[in-house]
Protein backbone atom coordinates (compact mmCIF):
# COMPACT_ATOMS: atom_id res chain seq x y z
CA UNK A 1 0.00 0.00 0.00
CA UNK A 2 1.34 3.41 -0.92
CA UNK A 3 -0.26 5.24 1.99
CA UNK A 4 1.30 4.31 5.32
CA UNK A 5 2.35 6.07 8.51
CA UNK A 6 0.14 9.01 9.44
CA UNK A 7 -3.07 8.75 7.39
CA UNK A 8 -5.12 11.87 8.05
CA UNK A 9 -6.46 14.41 10.52
CA UNK A 10 -8.69 12.43 12.86
CA UNK A 11 -10.03 14.76 15.50
CA UNK A 12 -9.88 18.17 17.10
CA UNK A 13 -11.03 18.93 20.65
CA UNK A 14 -12.12 22.54 20.91
CA UNK A 15 -13.18 24.58 23.97
CA UNK A 16 -16.46 26.46 23.90
CA UNK A 17 -17.96 28.94 26.34
CA UNK A 18 -21.54 27.64 26.36
CA UNK A 19 -22.03 23.96 25.59
CA UNK A 20 -25.68 23.85 24.53
CA UNK A 21 -25.45 27.02 22.41
CA UNK A 22 -22.41 25.44 20.73
CA UNK A 23 -24.18 22.11 20.20
CA UNK A 24 -26.97 23.97 18.41
CA UNK A 25 -24.40 25.82 16.30
CA UNK A 26 -22.29 22.82 15.31
CA UNK A 27 -25.29 20.51 14.81
CA UNK A 28 -27.84 22.80 13.18
CA UNK A 29 -25.82 25.57 11.50
CA UNK A 30 -22.56 23.83 10.53
CA UNK A 31 -24.58 20.64 10.16
CA UNK A 32 -22.33 18.12 11.90
CA UNK A 33 -23.82 14.86 13.16
CA UNK A 34 -23.85 14.49 16.97
CA UNK A 35 -22.50 11.03 17.79
CA UNK A 36 -22.11 10.96 21.55
CA UNK A 37 -21.62 12.61 24.93
CA UNK A 38 -19.27 11.38 27.65
CA UNK A 39 -19.07 11.48 31.44
CA UNK A 40 -16.83 14.57 31.27
CA UNK A 41 -19.63 16.40 29.44
CA UNK A 42 -17.86 16.47 26.10
CA UNK A 43 -20.02 16.37 22.95
CA UNK A 44 -18.84 14.43 19.90
CA UNK A 45 -19.55 15.19 16.26
CA UNK A 46 -18.66 13.84 12.85
CA UNK A 47 -19.14 15.20 9.34
CA UNK A 48 -21.76 13.29 7.40
CA UNK A 49 -19.36 11.44 5.07
CA UNK A 50 -16.79 10.49 7.68
CA UNK A 51 -16.77 6.85 8.67
CA UNK A 52 -15.15 6.93 12.10
CA UNK A 53 -17.12 7.74 15.24
CA UNK A 54 -16.14 11.41 15.57
CA UNK A 55 -13.81 14.10 14.29
CA UNK A 56 -14.79 17.17 16.32
CA UNK A 57 -15.25 17.23 20.08
CA UNK A 58 -16.33 20.24 22.11
CA UNK A 59 -15.81 20.84 25.81
CA UNK A 60 -17.23 23.69 27.90
CA UNK A 61 -14.52 25.91 29.42
CA UNK A 62 -13.90 29.52 30.48
CA UNK A 63 -11.68 30.19 27.49
CA UNK A 64 -12.08 29.23 23.82
CA UNK A 65 -9.26 27.50 21.90
CA UNK A 66 -8.00 24.05 21.03
CA UNK A 67 -7.10 21.29 23.52
CA UNK A 68 -5.48 18.94 21.01
CA UNK A 69 -5.45 17.85 17.37
CA UNK A 70 -5.21 14.15 16.51
CA UNK A 71 -4.06 12.16 13.49
CA UNK A 72 -5.07 8.61 12.64
CA UNK A 73 -2.16 6.30 11.79
CA UNK A 74 -2.27 3.11 9.74
CA UNK A 75 -2.25 0.51 12.54
CA UNK A 76 -0.99 -0.26 16.05
CA UNK A 77 2.50 -1.22 14.86
CA UNK A 78 2.76 2.19 13.18
CA UNK A 79 1.62 3.87 16.38
CA UNK A 80 4.34 2.06 18.38
CA UNK A 81 6.98 2.92 15.77
CA UNK A 82 6.05 6.61 15.64
CA UNK A 83 6.03 6.80 19.45
CA UNK A 84 9.57 5.35 19.49
CA UNK A 85 10.63 7.72 16.71
CA UNK A 86 9.26 10.77 18.56
CA UNK A 87 11.12 9.74 21.72
CA UNK A 88 14.33 9.05 19.78
CA UNK A 89 14.01 12.56 18.35
CA UNK A 90 13.95 13.89 21.92
CA UNK A 91 10.26 14.53 22.49
CA UNK A 92 8.36 13.34 25.55
CA UNK A 93 5.27 11.30 24.75
CA UNK A 94 2.44 10.23 27.00
CA UNK A 95 -0.20 7.53 26.55
CA UNK A 96 -3.88 8.31 26.91
CA UNK A 97 -5.73 5.06 27.59
CA UNK A 98 -8.24 3.57 25.18
CA UNK A 99 -11.76 4.76 25.90
CA UNK A 100 -10.76 8.19 27.22
CA UNK A 101 -12.28 9.55 24.02
CA UNK A 102 -15.41 7.55 23.20
CA UNK A 103 -14.90 4.65 20.75
CA UNK A 104 -11.19 5.50 20.43
CA UNK A 105 -8.12 3.36 21.10
CA UNK A 106 -4.95 4.33 22.93
CA UNK A 107 -3.49 7.69 21.95
CA UNK A 108 0.13 8.87 21.92
CA UNK A 109 0.30 12.54 22.85
CA UNK A 110 3.18 15.01 22.65
CA UNK A 111 3.65 18.75 22.87
CA UNK A 112 5.08 20.67 19.95
CA UNK A 113 7.57 23.54 20.48
CA UNK A 114 4.67 25.75 19.35
CA UNK A 115 2.76 24.78 22.50
CA UNK A 116 0.17 22.58 20.78
CA UNK A 117 -0.78 19.07 21.86
CA UNK A 118 -0.75 16.60 18.97
CA UNK A 119 -2.03 13.04 19.25
CA UNK A 120 -1.63 9.89 17.18
CA UNK A 121 -4.00 6.95 17.40
CA UNK A 122 -4.65 3.81 15.36
CA UNK A 123 -8.16 2.80 16.35
CA UNK A 124 -11.55 4.48 16.33
CA UNK A 125 -14.84 2.67 15.79
CA UNK A 126 -16.03 2.82 12.19
CA UNK A 127 -19.69 3.77 12.36
CA UNK A 128 -20.00 4.44 8.63
CA UNK A 129 -21.65 7.34 6.86
CA UNK A 130 -25.11 5.80 7.02
CA UNK A 131 -25.20 4.73 3.36
CA UNK A 132 -23.73 1.30 4.02
CA UNK A 133 -20.89 -0.49 2.26
CA UNK A 134 -22.93 -2.43 -0.30
CA UNK A 135 -24.55 -0.51 -3.16
CA UNK A 136 -24.41 2.75 -1.18
CA UNK A 137 -26.36 5.87 -2.05
CA UNK A 138 -24.03 8.79 -2.90
CA UNK A 139 -25.25 10.83 0.04
CA UNK A 140 -27.60 10.66 2.99
CA UNK A 141 -30.12 13.00 4.57
CA UNK A 142 -27.40 14.11 7.02
CA UNK A 143 -25.77 16.03 4.14
CA UNK A 144 -28.90 18.15 3.80
CA UNK A 145 -28.86 19.49 7.38
CA UNK A 146 -27.15 22.88 7.80
CA UNK A 147 -23.90 23.59 5.95
CA UNK A 148 -23.12 19.87 5.88
CA UNK A 149 -19.36 19.56 5.28
CA UNK A 150 -17.89 16.28 4.07
CA UNK A 151 -15.01 15.93 6.51
CA UNK A 152 -12.68 17.68 8.92
CA UNK A 153 -9.96 18.67 6.45
CA UNK A 154 -7.09 20.45 8.27
CA UNK A 155 -6.19 22.95 10.96
CA UNK A 156 -4.05 26.09 11.06
CA UNK A 157 -2.28 26.64 14.39
CA UNK A 158 -0.42 29.72 15.63
CA UNK A 159 2.58 29.58 17.96
CA UNK A 160 6.35 30.03 18.31
CA UNK A 161 9.19 27.87 16.91
CA UNK A 162 7.58 26.97 13.59
CA UNK A 163 10.97 25.92 12.15
CA UNK A 164 11.28 23.25 14.88
CA UNK A 165 7.68 22.17 14.32
CA UNK A 166 8.40 21.73 10.61
CA UNK A 167 11.38 19.47 11.42
CA UNK A 168 9.24 17.22 13.63
CA UNK A 169 6.51 16.83 11.04
CA UNK A 170 8.88 16.27 8.11
CA UNK A 171 11.68 14.30 9.79
CA UNK A 172 9.65 12.16 12.22
CA UNK A 173 6.04 12.02 11.10
CA UNK A 174 6.54 11.72 7.32
CA UNK A 175 4.86 14.96 6.25
CA UNK A 176 6.21 17.14 3.42
CA UNK A 177 6.21 20.91 2.96
CA UNK A 178 3.72 22.01 0.29
CA UNK A 179 3.78 25.82 0.57
CA UNK A 180 5.30 28.50 2.76
CA UNK A 181 5.21 32.26 3.28
CA UNK A 182 8.59 33.81 4.00
CA UNK A 183 9.25 36.25 6.84
CA UNK A 184 9.72 39.91 5.76
CA UNK A 185 13.54 39.50 5.74
CA UNK A 186 13.20 36.34 3.63
CA UNK A 187 15.34 34.34 6.06
CA UNK A 188 12.66 32.16 7.66
CA UNK A 189 9.09 30.98 7.30
CA UNK A 190 6.20 33.03 8.64
CA UNK A 191 3.78 30.20 7.82
CA UNK A 192 3.99 26.62 6.52
CA UNK A 193 1.51 24.18 4.96
CA UNK A 194 2.27 20.49 5.48
CA UNK A 195 0.75 17.34 3.98
CA UNK A 196 0.88 13.67 4.99
CA UNK A 197 -1.16 12.69 1.96
CA UNK A 198 -2.21 13.83 -1.51
CA UNK A 199 -4.09 16.77 0.03
CA UNK A 200 -2.75 20.29 -0.32
CA UNK A 201 -2.51 20.47 3.48
CA UNK A 202 -3.33 18.36 6.50
CA UNK A 203 -1.95 20.88 9.01
CA UNK A 204 -0.49 24.37 8.83
CA UNK A 205 1.38 26.61 11.26
CA UNK A 206 2.07 30.32 11.49
CA UNK A 207 4.76 31.93 13.66
CA UNK A 208 3.16 33.75 16.59
CA UNK A 209 4.57 34.80 19.97
CA UNK A 210 1.85 33.16 22.12
CA UNK A 211 1.95 29.35 22.25
CA UNK A 212 -0.89 26.91 21.63
CA UNK A 213 -3.23 29.11 19.64
CA UNK A 214 -5.97 28.02 17.21
CA UNK A 215 -6.40 29.93 13.97
CA UNK A 216 -9.01 27.62 12.46
CA UNK A 217 -10.28 24.11 11.92
CA UNK A 218 -11.33 23.58 8.32
CA UNK A 219 -14.26 21.60 6.98
CA UNK A 220 -14.33 20.33 3.41
CA UNK A 221 -17.22 21.18 1.09
CA UNK A 222 -17.85 19.32 -2.17
CA UNK A 223 -18.02 22.29 -4.51
CA UNK A 224 -17.61 26.06 -4.77
CA UNK A 225 -21.39 26.26 -4.94
CA UNK A 226 -21.53 24.48 -1.59
CA UNK A 227 -19.10 27.05 -0.15
CA UNK A 228 -21.39 29.85 -1.39
CA UNK A 229 -24.37 28.00 0.10
CA UNK A 230 -22.43 27.81 3.38
CA UNK A 231 -22.15 31.60 3.21
CA UNK A 232 -25.90 31.89 2.71
CA UNK A 233 -26.52 29.69 5.75
CA UNK A 234 -24.03 31.72 7.81
CA UNK A 235 -25.90 34.92 6.96
CA UNK A 236 -29.34 33.37 7.61
CA UNK A 237 -28.07 32.45 11.07
CA UNK A 238 -26.20 35.74 11.67
CA UNK A 239 -22.87 33.92 11.99
CA UNK A 240 -19.88 36.21 12.43
CA UNK A 241 -17.99 35.96 9.11
CA UNK A 242 -14.29 36.87 8.89
CA UNK A 243 -13.16 36.54 5.24
CA UNK A 244 -14.79 35.39 2.02
CA UNK A 245 -16.19 33.70 0.10
CA UNK A 246 -12.90 34.00 -1.78
CA UNK A 247 -9.91 31.99 -2.89
CA UNK A 248 -6.57 31.60 -1.12
CA UNK A 249 -3.51 32.01 -3.35
CA UNK A 250 -1.75 29.66 -0.94
CA UNK A 251 -3.16 26.15 -1.63
CA UNK A 252 -5.65 27.64 -4.19
CA UNK A 253 -8.42 26.65 -1.79
CA UNK A 254 -11.82 28.37 -2.01
CA UNK A 255 -12.87 29.52 1.41
CA UNK A 256 -14.99 31.27 3.97
CA UNK A 257 -13.53 31.96 7.42
CA UNK A 258 -16.10 32.52 10.16
CA UNK A 259 -16.36 32.29 13.94
CA UNK A 260 -18.33 29.91 16.12
CA UNK A 261 -20.33 31.43 19.02
CA UNK A 262 -17.23 31.22 21.28
CA UNK A 263 -14.94 33.02 18.82
CA UNK A 264 -13.18 29.90 17.50
CA UNK A 265 -12.58 30.45 13.81
CA UNK A 266 -13.61 27.70 11.41
CA UNK A 267 -13.36 27.43 7.64
CA UNK A 268 -15.62 26.00 4.98
CA UNK A 269 -13.28 25.08 2.18
CA UNK A 270 -13.03 23.30 -1.14
CA UNK A 271 -10.52 22.77 -3.91
CA UNK A 272 -6.82 23.30 -4.03
CA UNK A 273 -4.53 21.07 -6.05
CA UNK A 274 -3.22 17.59 -5.25
CA UNK A 275 0.49 17.60 -4.51
CA UNK A 276 2.84 14.60 -4.35
CA UNK A 277 5.72 14.22 -1.88
CA UNK A 278 8.30 14.82 -4.65
CA UNK A 279 6.93 18.27 -5.48
CA UNK A 280 9.17 21.26 -4.68
CA UNK A 281 7.44 23.52 -2.13
CA UNK A 282 5.82 26.72 -3.38
CA UNK A 283 7.15 29.91 -1.81
CA UNK A 284 5.30 33.17 -1.23
CA UNK A 285 7.26 36.29 -0.38
CA UNK A 286 5.93 38.34 2.53
CA UNK A 287 5.02 41.26 0.28
CA UNK A 288 2.61 38.92 -1.55
CA UNK A 289 1.04 37.54 1.64
CA UNK A 290 -2.13 39.46 0.71
CA UNK A 291 -2.50 37.45 -2.50
CA UNK A 292 -1.64 34.27 -0.60
CA UNK A 293 -4.50 34.86 1.79
CA UNK A 294 -7.12 36.40 -0.51
CA UNK A 295 -6.10 36.14 -4.14
CA UNK A 296 -8.86 38.23 -5.79
CA UNK A 297 -8.74 41.07 -3.25
CA UNK A 298 -4.95 40.90 -2.65
CA UNK A 299 -5.62 41.88 0.95
CA UNK A 300 -3.73 40.82 4.06
CA UNK A 301 -6.77 41.03 6.31
CA UNK A 302 -5.75 42.26 9.77
CA UNK A 303 -7.85 39.60 11.51
CA UNK A 304 -5.87 36.79 9.82
CA UNK A 305 -2.74 37.91 11.66
CA UNK A 306 -4.20 38.92 15.01
CA UNK A 307 -7.42 37.04 15.92
CA UNK A 308 -6.83 33.57 17.37
CA UNK A 309 -8.21 31.60 20.31
FE1 LIG B 1 -7.55 26.47 6.06
Automatic annotation (TrEMBL):
UniProt keyword annotation of Lipoprotein present: no
GO MF term set: catechol 2,3-dioxygenase activity
Keywords: Aromatic hydrocarbons catabolism, Dioxygenase, Iron, Metal-binding, Oxidoreductase, Repeat
PROSITE patterns from the UniProt entry: EXTRADIOL_DIOXYGENAS, VOC
InterPro entries: Catechol_2-3_dOase, Glyas_Fos-R_dOase_dom, GlyoxalaseI/FosfomycinResist, VOC_core, Xdiol_ring_cleave_dOase_1/2, XylE-like_N
Its EC number(s): 1.13.11.2
UniProt xrefs under CDD domains: 2_3_CTD_C, 2_3_CTD_N
Species of origin: Geopseudomonas aromaticivorans
Name of this chain's protein: Metapyrocatechase
Domain VOC: 8-123, 151-271
Swiss-Prot/TrEMBL cofactor(s): Fe(2+)
Catalytic activity: catechol + O2 = (2Z,4E)-2-hydroxy-6-oxohexa-2,4-dienoate + H(+)
Similarity field: Belongs to the extradiol ring-cleavage dioxygenase family.
Amino acid sequence: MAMTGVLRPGHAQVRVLNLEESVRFYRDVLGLVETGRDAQGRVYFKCWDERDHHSYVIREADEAGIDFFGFKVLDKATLEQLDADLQAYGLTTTRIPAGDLLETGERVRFELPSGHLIELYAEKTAVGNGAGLVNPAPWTQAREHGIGPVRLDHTLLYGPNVAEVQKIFTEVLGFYLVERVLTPDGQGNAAIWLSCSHKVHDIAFAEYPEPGKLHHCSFLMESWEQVLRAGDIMSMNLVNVDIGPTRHGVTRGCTIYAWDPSGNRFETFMGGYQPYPDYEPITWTFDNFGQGLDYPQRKLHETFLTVVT
